[in-house]
Design goal:
This protein is an alpha+beta fold and 358 residues long. It is 17% helix and 29% strand. Strand 3 and strand 4 form a beta hairpin. The radius of gyration is 25 Å and the shape is globular.
Length: 358
């Protein structure tokens, strides 16, 4: 949970979505000036960040399967003044005998990879919620709207391809590097800030560094390709905060006896609810390989209770699992992730800037 003021908490928890002084839900979509500080700045927007007006709706999707959040923003686009290719000489006929058509400060601003920051709250009390990059801009001429879709800053990790150092085949070449430091370097290699703990082999005494064990990150891979296998083989996950900073953290362990941090009910909040159960990508037997060494592991619960005895096997290459104990840890991590995907609950609620995944 994010830290918020008591007044903002009161606004969120009101069944009328209101609070004192006629405060009501509010948003700020800030767009970073693509030309700020550049020699080709057309001079139509004098600030580095500007608030996007005419916002009709904002939708943000978050999932535990990736740190990347996705967003969709719909903007009223009368006369096409927010269109990426707008220019002053391109106007509707009704301006023909009227005053001179002014320039639009938003001309050539809403392009793919333009940076956006979304703030949510009530009244003037808003807090940062997401920072990201535009993926796509769609113009609807009939409705005179413009739809912006994009992802949080982790998009860079998903799409940036690796270029190893000169005369090297891999991006990371130090095989003794701690696996947490490896994740940090890979994420930051894509231009995204990251923090990661020093990871030790569970149960080791004295604490033993969990080493990468192999060179990592080949050319033409994305940075996410290189980092995802590492994270998936550990009891860790990556989360991205409102400023676009990624943190590697242990997967929390929850129990039904734990007190809830947020209560969602159909009177105050719930707009949509979907519950799914699927045995796709479930395997009762997995083989963990590290070079020429391999161990086989079984989940009786998955095989007997979910798959009803059906045989399903999968094989994972985990180069850093160079001992039987590390291969067992990797197997436990993969089985745990399968069970996380086995049952899913998807809900839609009015924006609550206090909620964080994990």
């Amino acid at each position: 949970m994010r830290n918020i003021s008591p007044t903002l908490l009161q606004s969120i928890s009101s069944q009328f979505q209101l609070a004192a002084d006629d405060r009501e839900p509010n948003q700020y979509v800030l767009v970073r000036n693509r030309f700020y500080g550049r020699s080709d700045d057309p001079g139509l927007m004098d600030v580095e960040w500007a608030r996007l007006p005419n916002v009709i709706s904002i939708e943000i999707d978050e999932t535990v399967e990736t740190p990347a959040k996705s967003f969709t923003i719909v903007v009223a686009n009368n006369d096409g003044r927010f269109s990426p290719d707008y220019y002053a000489g391109k106007w509707p006929q009704r301006y023909l005998f009227g005053d001179e058509v002014p320039e639009s400060p938003w001309a050539r601003q809403l392009f793919p990879n333009t940076e956006i920051a979304i703030h949510l709250g009530y009244g003037e009390e808003v807090i940062p919620y997401l920072r990201g990059l535009i993926d796509e801009v769609t113009i609807n001429s009939d409705a005179q709207t413009l739809t912006i879709t994009g992802r949080s800053m982790y998009k860079k990790v998903l799409t940036t391809t690796i270029k190893p150092p000169s005369n090297k085949q891999y991006f990371l070449n130090d095989k003794t590097m701690n696996i947490g430091e490896a994740v940090k370097k890979l994420v930051e290699g894509a231009g995204v800030p990251c923090t990661a703990p020093f990871i030790t082999v569970p149960g080791s005494n004295p604490p033993e560094s969990y080493e990468l064990g192999v060179a990592r990150g080949e050319r033409f891979q994305t940075f996410d390709d290189a980092v995802r296998d590492i994270v998936d083989s550990l009891f860790f996950t990556m989360v991205e905060d409102a400023q676009g900073k990624v943190t590697l953290k242990s997967i929390p362990r929850y129990s039904q006896a734990d007190d809830p941090k947020v209560v969602v009910d159909d009177f105050l909040h719930l707009k949509e609810l979907e519950y799914t159960m699927s045995d796709n990508d479930l395997y009762g037997t997995i083989i963990i390989k590290s070079g020429k060494k391999a161990d086989i592991f079984h989940s009786g619960f998955i095989t007997n209770q979910i798959l009803r005895g059906q045989r399903r096997e999968a094989e994972y290459e985990v180069p850093w699992a160079n001992t039987s104990f590390k291969r067992k840890l990797a197997a436990q991590a993969y089985f745990t992730q399968m069970l996380h995907r086995w049952r899913k609950l998807s809900i839609a609620i009015p924006a609550n800037p206090a909620i964080e995944l994990w």
